[in-house]
Amino acid sequence: MTTTDNFLPYGRQQIDDDDIAAVSDVLRSDFLTTGPTVAAFENALAKRVGADFAVACSSGTTALHLAALACGIGPDDTVIVPSMTFLATANAVRYTGAAVVFADIDGDSGLMQEAGLAQALEKHPNATAVFPVHLCGQRADMAGITRMAREKGMKIVEDACHALGTTHGKDGSVGDCSGSDATVFSFHPVKTIAMGEGGAVTTNDADMAERMRRLRNHAMHRMPESGEPWFHEMAELGFNYRASDIHCALGLSQLGKLDMFLQRRRDLVAHYDEALADLAPILKAPTRNEGENTGWHLYVALVDFDKIDLTRPALMEKLKDRGIGSQVHYIPVHTQPYYREHAGEDSLPGAEGYYRRCLSLPLFTAMNTGDVDRVAVALKSILLTETHKQ
Is this model's pTM higher than 0.90 or not? Predict the structure, then answer.
């Protein structure tokens, strides 16, 4: 394998001196956790996305679990989850004891649509909640999903771990919870902003926000009115899902650069679209949402491997030989052994077709258009010169 000094991974955080300084300030302060920086980050995030409340926690997975619990989801419930997502979306539902059933997605966009929810409800009419997923930064069909779910009295939790900064319409922002009970974000290093590990839930429901704050801290309810300042009660089982002030200092610093990060990613995506246009129809981008200003997390190429003499692992290896990383997002969750046992065998052609073609290419803010050109040249060399069937 050829090695290079400038390997392009599919994703990477951008940490600057101001981020390091923000973390250092907390390290020199009196509070490393459960201190004022957590609240400052929560307030800034809620303001940014237009929600009334934000609750920070230790990861996107714990955020999903907290949101599910705050919605009252438990062993008697059934929750619909799109199959094209990371394992955590479904796993967090299972942590509550609820059943998971899978919805199909649109095979050209990877996104859950109203039709997928309708098909799932035909099989499971008593489902009590739905967790639509915003994939790569693009929104699921929230208008259709919200309308149908509300008619059925279902709870709605948006998995927006890919979609911080995505806006739509005149004033809509992912995270404002205008069509849901809660929205979940992740701040893993490859996401738009990084906390190392971290997540958050936004909501407009004060009771849900308060319950999530208790649950992330062992469900302890402090009662200073008792006259004993140490006294607390635990009425339900909680967890240690806290985000520290160290993590939130990094998140707060990164959030201040969100507009710059978003614009850089949008510019890179636009350059990818132009640079790869000549490869259609062998390679094309997923269908794009109209009327949306997407906060891109991933750049996915859909490759028609039936038209080339090359498997996806072989293509990834050839890219790696050229110093270019790639990844696959995601294996349809309904095909995982655990969920085949839990939910039964199912055929979801949209998710399975998307999975057969998808390949995530490098996208992170430290890239430049020359890096995009380098990826495009490599793909053209591999797909057109070496493998295209005549």
Answer: yes
